[in-house]
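Forwarding the complex inputs:
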Amino acid sequence: MLAALTGAGVDYILVGGAAAIAHGSARLTQDVDIVYARAAVNLSKLVKALGPHTPYLRGAPPGLPFQFDEQTLRRGLNFMLTTSLGDIDLLGEITGGGGYEDLLPDSVVLEVFGLHCRGLSLDRLIEVKRAAGRPKDLEAIAELEAIREEQ
Amino acid sequence: MRPEDQDPIIEAYKRGIDRTLIRENLKRTVTERFEQAMALQRFAEELKRAGRKARKTQKDA
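Prediction (whole assembly, two chains):
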C-alpha cells in the first residue's frame, strides 16, 4: 500500500493505527489511514496509485456505480475503501487536526521498507485522538502516552 | 506531563498497558515494527480461518 502511494508521489500523512505502530504501538490495525493533500495534482496521483488495485467503498453492496477518479475525490472528502492491497481510509480532514497542510508541520519522515513517507508525530497523534473523543480510542491514547513516557 | 494535564480516565487505562511490549517495540526500527505487526495480523487471520472451519465442522457433525 505504502509502496503504491509513495511510488506515485502522493502527498499524504500516515495517521491512526499505522502511525501508532510506527511510533511503537503493539496494537493491531485493520486498515491504513492517511490524510491526503486535496490539490488537484495530488488527486490525480491518488487515482494513479490506487486505481489499478480495484478500490471500492468498504461495506457497500456490490454493483454500485462507484468510479474511483479525480471527480469522485473532488466531490467527496473522506473515503473508506477496500482494495486488493488492503483496506485504506482516505481522509481529507481529521477531527482536531484539519487537512494535510495543517498537519504537515507536525509530521515526521518515516523509513518503512526502504521507502520514505510522512507520519503524524507522536504528540500530534495523541492530540487528534483526544480531540476525536471516541470511547474506542481511550486505550490507544493511554498506550501512546505510555510510549511517550518510555522514550 | 503536568499533573493538571492528566486525564484520570486515560491514567486508569494506562495502568492496564503492557509496557514490556512497548519497550521491545522501541528497540526495533520502524520497518521492524511494521513487520512485527504484519506477522501478527497474518497470525490473527489464520486463527480466524481456523475458528470458522472448526465452527463449521461442529455444525455439520
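Chain B has a mean pLDDT of 91.
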